[in-house]
Structures are given as structure tokens and as C-alpha cells.
């Protein structure tokens, strides 16, 4: 398969161009740059979000979430935890790997501590307060693997803030995947370049 992007910077430029193009033709409510916040999911999403925020002359913020790791593979996400303790788990993975409730609770507790540490490090405070209310949010990550983090993040924004509009923007997403269906139901707009 031919790579669509040379690196994250290239993906950020292309995604920023796509967002600008889609904002011109979408039925999204009118907004000013004061209404707009580009929200990055660290780490990979920060580079892309910075490029997009500069292109749109908007504010930028980070959304600290943490994946719930598989018990037997630290790199494989079976879910994700948000700053207030809300979490999303892929029940299919939980059943497949026979994840115990005890392990889930222990892992969620561990990840919440790490979220708080990173919130202080990156934002200087633990609470998001009402910062995303009445805003057009562009939630950015550098791609989708299992989808746990981006789904949990999009749901958290929709459930906890009165945002005007939520755009989920990723350069790479799986084709014909359940994650895309779920994100399309949560977000007002989903922008991506799908690899088949």
C-alpha cells in the first residue's frame, strides 16, 4: 500500500486543508475564530492540531485521556479513561481477552492518576471547567487504531459540554470499521482520509 502521508506534519497540512474546504460547504453553524478550539489528543495529535490551529487562527488545547491497556499487551487498547473518570471499553475485546472487573478497576485507577499528572504538566490544572461550552470543537488525533481513545474523547466532550459543534478530524482511519460508525453518530462531522 502506498503511504498517504510522508509524516505527521504532511498529514497535518493535508487535514487542515480538508477542514477549511469542508467548512466552506458544510451546514455547520456560522462561527468566529473566538468560537473555535482545536483540541489535540496527545501525543501524536499535538503536531497535527498545532498546524490546524495556525491555519484557522484558532485556540488550541489538549485533551488528556489514557488508554485502558490489555492485561497481556501494554500497547493494545481495550478502552480509554477520561479526566473525570468516565471510560469506554470495547466489550468485544473484554470478552475476547476475558478481562476481569478487578483488572479494569485497577487499570482505570492507575490511568486516572497518570491523567491528573499530565493535566498539571500540560495545562497547569486538573479541571476543564466549562472551557468547551458554546465552542466549535475540532478534536484531532494522528490516526485510529482500536478507536478507544477517540471514541471516549468524543463522547466525553458531547456528554460534559454544551459545544456548538463537534468535528472529529483524523488523517488515517480504518475502512468499513465499527469505530467510524460510532464516531459518525457522536460527532456532528467526521473528517478523515480513509485507507482501504
SSE pattern: HEHEEEEHHEHEHE
**What is the CA-CA span between the terminal residues?**
9 Å
Lateral arrangement of strands in the main beta sheet: 2-1-6-7-8
Q: Tally of extended strands?
A: 8
Mean pLDDT: 87
Q: Give the strand content.
A: 15-25%
Q: What's the helical proportion of residues?
A: 40-55%
Compute the number of structural domains.
2
Major sheet summary line: 5 strands, parallel
Q: Which oligomerization state do the chains in this entry correspond to?
A: single chain
Give me the secondary-structure topology.
Layout: H1 8-25, E1 36-40, H2 44-56, E2 59-62, E3 66-70, E4 73-81, E5 87-89, H3 91-96, H4 101-123, E6 136-140, H5 148-160, E7 165-174, H6 178-186, E8 189-195
Describe what is shown at a glance.
The protein is 42% helix and 24% strand. It has 196 residues and is of the alpha/beta class.
What can you tell me about this protein's structure?
With about 200 residues, the chain is α/β, with parallel strands linked by helices. The protein has 2 domains: about 15-65 and about 125-195, Rossmann fold; about 65-125, Ybab, Chain: A (2-Layer Sandwich). About 40% of the residues lie in helices and about 25% in strands. Strands 2-1-6-7-8 form a 5-stranded parallel β-sheet, with helices on both faces. α1 crosses α2 (about 45-55) and α5 (about 150-160) packs parallel to α6.
Amino acid at each position: 500500500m502506498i503511504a498517504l502521508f510522508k509524516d505527521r506534519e504532511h498529514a497535518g497540512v493535508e487535514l487542515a486543508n480538508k477542514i477549511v474546504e469542508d467548512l466552506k460547504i458544510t451546514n455547520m453553524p456560522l462561527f468566529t475564530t473566538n468560537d473555535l478550539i482545536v483540541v489535540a489528543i496527545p501525543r501524536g495529535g499535538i503536531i497535527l492540531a498545532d498546524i490546524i490551529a495556525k491555519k484557522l487562527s484558532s485556540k488550541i488545547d489538549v485533551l488528556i485521556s489514557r488508554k485502558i491497556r490489555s492485561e497481556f499487551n501494554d500497547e493494545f487498547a481495550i478502552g480509554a479513561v477520561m479526566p473525570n473518570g468516565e471510560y469506554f471499553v470495547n466489550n468485544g475485546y473484554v470478552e475476547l481477552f476475558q478481562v476481569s472487573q478487578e483488572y479494569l478497576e485497577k487499570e482505570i485507577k492507575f490511568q486516572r492518576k497518570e491523567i491528573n499528572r499530565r493535566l498539571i504538566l500540560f495545562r497547569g490544572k486538573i479541571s476543564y471547567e466549562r472551557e468547551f461550552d458554546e465552542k466549535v470543537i475540532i478534536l484531532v488525533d494522528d490516526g485510529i487504531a482500536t478507536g478507544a481513545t477517540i471514541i471516549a474523547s468524543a463522547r466525553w466532550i458531547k456528554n460534559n459540554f454544551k459545544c456548538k459543534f463537534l468535528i472529529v478530524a483524523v488523517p488515517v482511519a480504518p475502512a468499513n470499521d465499527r469505530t467510524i460508525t460510532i464516531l459518525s453518530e457522536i460527532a456532528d462531522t467526521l473528517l478523515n482520509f480513509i485507507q482501504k
